[in-house]
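Exercise 3.2. Students should predict the tertiary structure of the chain below and write it as structure tokens, then compare their answer with the key that follows.

Predict this chain's 3D structure.
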Amino acid sequence: MFNAPTDTATLLFSGSQDGATLQASVKLTLTNWTATSATFAAIVNNTSFGPGQNVLMAFGITAVSPTLNGASTNTAAWGAELDTNFPSFQNIDLCVMTGNNCAGGSINGGIGMNATSSFNLTLTTDATHNFMTSGISFISPYSIKFQGVGTKGNSIEFAGCVASTAGCGGGGGGGGAGGGGDVPEPNALLLIGVAALAAGLSRRVLQRAVR
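Answer key:
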């Protein structure tokens, strides 16, 4: 919850995939607001290490209260979308990304390992709501997307948590209990299903052969 300028929160992310350790933090500080507009200073750190490029591409907030009607940044390096699809998390209220959309794309514009990026994020609401009266809430899960991960160079998304809250580490590199759950890509889930089906068919064939 952001109730006044200078309020700050840091999202922490920590996971692993194909030999790579994926770590990142997103610090958001409310710097200016009116009844219908709020600007945050954002600092994104990618502290990942290990094999692969491990490029940070996007982060998302599943639900924002009050309801938003606009989101923008002050730089071409980052974009923002409302009510969009974040792979493995499906529909979320807010996505902030380095590519053309939250589904991913070219990693050339992403945030590489040991890199930091800063920008302003402005959120707006309509006249039926009032940021200054209700405050602004970011509601979990908080999602992050990496591409070019580990030895296989695949994409992965997983959830993070808010620093210094229950179950979440206070350091800049780890998401604690809330931030380490890897979420397979939809294609990976499909392959798992196909493998399970194939295994079942093989067992049936063997049983018939024994009979």
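Discussion points: The CA atoms of residues 87 and 103 lie 6 Å apart. The longest helix spans residues 186-210.
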